[in-house]
Amino acid sequence: MKFERTAQDLKSAARAGVLHTEHGEIQTPIFMPVGTAGSVKAVHQRELETDIHAQIILSNTYHLYLRPGTELLEKAGGIHRFNGWNKPILTDSGGYQVYSLAANRKIAEEGVTFKSHIDGSKHYFTPEKVMDIQRSIGADIIMAFDECTPYPCDYNYAKNSVELTHRWLTRCIDRMNSTQSKHGYEQALFPIVQGSVFKDLRERSAEFVASQNQQGNAIGGLSVGEPHEDMYAMTSLVCSILPADKPRYLMGVGTPENILECIALGVDMFDCVMPTRNARNGMLFTTEGIINIRNEKWKEDLTPIDPILGSYASTFYSKAYLRHLVINKEILGAQIASIHNLTFYLWLVNQARQKITEGSFATWKDEMVSKVKRRL
Amino acid sequence: MKFERTAQDLKSAARAGVLHTEHGEIQTPIFMPVGTAGSVKAVHQRELETDIHAQIILSNTYHLYLRPGTELLEKAGGIHRFNGWNKPILTDSGGYQVYSLAANRKIAEEGVTFKSHIDGSKHYFTPEKVMDIQRSIGADIIMAFDECTPYPCDYNYAKNSVELTHRWLTRCIDRMNSTQSKHGYEQALFPIVQGSVFKDLRERSAEFVASQNQQGNAIGGLSVGEPHEDMYAMTSLVCSILPADKPRYLMGVGTPENILECIALGVDMFDCVMPTRNARNGMLFTTEGIINIRNEKWKEDLTPIDPILGSYASTFYSKAYLRHLVINKEILGAQIASIHNLTFYLWLVNQARQKITEGSFATWKDEMVSKVKRRL
Hints:
2 copies of one chain form a homodimer.
Chain A: E1 2-8, E2 15-21, E3 24-28, E4 30-32, H1 45-50, E5 57-60, H2 61-66, H3 70-76, H4 79-83, E6 89-92, H5 95-100, E7 103-107, E8 112-115, E9 122-125, H6 127-137, E10 141-143, H7 155-177, E11 188-190, E12 192-193, H8 199-211, E13 217-219, H9 228-241, E14 248-250, H10 256-264, E15 269-271, H11 274-280, E16 283-286, E17 289-292, H12 312-316, H13 319-327, H14 331-358, H15 361-372
Helix pairs in contact in A: 6-7, 7-8, 8-9, 10-14, 10-15, 11-14, 13-14, 14-15
């Protein structure tokens, strides 16, 4: 994997780049649609490519491990062959899901025991096992097994947790170094900076992570309920420490506003369930602001959802028709809104990239933030 | 509207034809995907056209009247403009839904009062009102308001009911003759033959319907639980009476086997929720037989769903991946299975049409029936 920086904004830490993987190039800054169980909900793989212009999608180790399981994924020749998405894929390590979804979890030095949220079956994740699972799944970028602290979190818990995450990181790297790709292409491990909202912990964690000299680095444990100011402060601090020549991935972020602000702080990669989850509830992110399509206001609006975007879902269907579908709980409503929101997110990061390249990012960002956060 | 017969099978009553409407041609025999509320569930309009090769879809007066309502549909310029499906559309009259979905219904000579299944609001349908609603909706083919008898049904109830349906038909025709299309194109009214499974009632009803000299005729009140033999016997009887130079539409039928058998009896048009509803439960109709994709048997089957069909959903995704999606209740599972099943249904009627034209329908039909009904 190779990361090339192609432009640096002069008025912010924003930068543009290209991340080369064996499944293709990723133009950064980039947003990664979330396909938890190997499917971006309500979206066909063809639509991801042709309509949304996704360059990389994210899947989840915890979910894929439980179903369909590593045996079938290995037999298929890896996740790309299983789901037919032949461009880059990143898998989250499952750390966050073990804490947020699984029951009866017990964290120890060696690893975590938990019960499946699906059938209550007992499982045991260690850093080594999570690396092995991700070898079987076969994503291009795989994440270290960490503990994601909740918010709020007391200082001592956060301190012990970040230290455990660091010891686990060493074990993850050792396991990666002593094993090989199972599907014939390179897999890059991204370590994760933790430390909650405590400056000194974030600093130490960023320094430790940077010293591991992996091919990219991630910031975890943010967008878990803390004020935006804290998210931005921690992101800014960590970005100032993580090496500039490696891609930086801010996990689980966020709103269009969050993404623009964090691009300005030097982040290159984002993922979030928001565009798809909120789509299923009728919330649309558009180039003019946020629409709750269930509102009476849109009932007779026969204009396209968002003509600026030029994609099928955003231009073919009207707001009134989409509202009718969402109110009637028609599956097509979720489909249209999901494609639309993802198209918008990918359009937004692509616009940011262009503005960075042209040298006009800072002004554009301020205008855009005020636009994308307003409620229509 | 004009119906041209292009071929007649010599060993059965099967025939091929072309139905010309102002929204395009329909090659018969044809299957019409059901889009109850103006959306074929889990399928984009683009997919209906490009992947499924649908030529006409069906919507429902009862549902569209309740939501979004005729005011909005008129404002949009009719259903085609509202949902973006610019090919032919047929609306069922809502008779069946008033009996199957609505609460507190009371049937009288003048019309039916009922409560909405959505919000319990009270409504009143008369034959005249249902014609007016269908004028507002603007389908190319609209159905008479009838009473659809349940199965089993005692003789006297069926007799009184079919007589009421006939009196209502006269009122529907009068209303159609005294009103005009609201959206600038022709709307054809199809009367409906009723009479449950009683030969004499079906005969009288078919004769009455035929004498009305409308542009097409329909057979209702079948596929409501009666044995297949009764369905075929009634269909055969009615087809022998309905004029050969008008299209014949068998409402709500059915399985692939039912469709092939009824094409052989002289039916030209079909609709059924089965391909989409069963898709959402993981049942696939394929060129080799019926698959319950939830079965363990398909867990590791990495072959395409049905390569014969050649469409995106049927060839791009594997059975194992589709099974994974269905087991995980991923929306994409419903999407793939729905497109696949509809593609199969349209493929089946198109094959039938070709065989009729080539003169080999009867032999092909028998082989195909034994194939399409077997469980894989």
